[in-house]
Specification:
The complex is a heterodimer of chains A (116) and B (116). With 116 residues, chain A is an all-beta fold. Chain A is built from no helices and eleven strands. In chain A, strands 2, 4, 5, 6, 9, 10 and 11 form a seven-stranded mixed sheet that branches.
């Protein structure tokens, strides 16, 4: 089974520019998550989708971050405009519907964003 | 607030000896606890989990212990191998009281180094 695909792997942008990350989850996984991992910290949930509906976006900075999941498959996370503190690894993960917590999500390799 | 804490940023262990990684939590509603392992430039990979109704779960060289009264869990790796060198994240799962969806909360991570 193919894993969670993310692109690009690395991105360097100047502050106030915009950037977009793409994620393709494991086939059949209806739930998709975007996490932000700042260096030295654990991953923090930004947004959770079930199919193409948002389940939880309580920690998404909505003034600059947006995410969509068209057709309930691929997802895009956008930052506009970027700030220095957005420098982090952005991780996408997916799981089956009805995830009960015992077997974890499957994560992609992440996109490392550096804002200069 | 930091619901899941890993107070040791790093740990160094001799090959063949036991590695013990610790994690504390504050939310008594967590129903599963998980450990993830992360190599550089890769996403976290699920390692082992334990239900909140159990106190021990074993999988090969990895054993997780849960002490609910102390709100503490630990991961034991015996014997430790050089390939175990990675960052280990403790995570806890609970259903969101409003949304109903299960989600993971991560600790800050512990960098384990196994010395030959």
């Amino acid at each position: 089974e193919a894993g969670v695909a993310q692109s690009p792997r690395y991105k360097i942008i100047e502050k106030r520019q915009s950037v977009a990350f793409w994620c393709n989850p494991i086939s059949g996984h209806a739930t998709l998550y975007w996490y932000q991992q700042i260096l030295g910290q654990g991953p923090k949930l930004l947004i959770q989708f079930q199919n193409n509906g948002v389940v939880d976006d309580s920690q998404l900075p909505k003034d600059r971050f947006s995410a969509e999941r068209l057709k309930g498959v691929d997802s895009t996370l956008k930052i506009q405009p970027a700030k220095l503190e957005d420098s982090a690894v952005y991780l996408c993960a997916s799981s089956l519907v009805g995830y009960q917590g015992s077997d974890g999500y499957t994560f992609g390799s992440g996109t490392r964003l550096t804002v200069v | 607030d930091q619901q899941v804490k890993q107070n040791s940023p790093s740990l160094s262990v001799q090959e063949g000896r036991i590695s013990i990684l610790n994690c504390d939590y504050t939310n008594s509603m967590f129903d599963y606890f998980l450990w993830y392992k992360k190599y550089p430039a890769e996403g976290p990979t699920f390692l082992i989990s334990i239900s909140s109704i159990k106190d021990k779960n074993e999988d090969g060289r990895f054993t997780v212990f849960l002490n609910k009264s102390a709100k503490h869990l630990s991961l034991h790796i015996v014997p430790s191998q050089p390939g175990d060198s990675a960052v280990y994240f403790c995570a806890a799962s609970a259903a969101d009281p409003i949304q109903g969806a299960q989600k993971l909360v991560f600790g800050q991570g512990t960098r384990l180094t196994i010395n030959p």
